[in-house]
Description:
By secondary structure, the chain is an alpha/beta fold. The chain has a domain of 81 residues: Rossmann fold, CATH 3.40.50.12600. Helix content is 48%, strand content 12%. It contains five helices and four strands; from the N terminus they run βαβαβαβαα. The chain has a four-stranded parallel sheet with strand order 1-2-3-4. Strand 2, helix 2 and strand 3 form a beta-alpha-beta unit. It starts with a strand and ends with a helix. 21% of the residues are buried.
Amino acid sequence: MHFIKLATPTTDKNRFKKIIKNSSGFIYYISITGITGANYKSNTKLETEIKILKKLTKLPIAVGFGIKNKKDVKKLSKKADAIVVGSSIIKKIEEAQKKKYNKIKLINYVLSYIKKLSSAL
């Protein structure tokens, strides 16, 4: 079992060092301030902070929060070691449930979305 620590856009370099010291598995970088499900907006601060983290640790850097489309995945995959998609997958599940899809159709609907996102890698 790993202890996954979170870093955010408001985390300073000294805090990064503390986070890394007590982490294992990977570092989860939250790409936005705000709540899960908000939109990811590409920014140079995020790219700079991923570079800083990579200089401080050999652990993989996973980026999540606000990632909803192939464009987001493509952009982030050039910098991060892993992309985390959560809320937009939950929304696809909710859409399928509203459409009264049976379990197999729901799974295929969600897998189709995941494959679409993955095609950007």
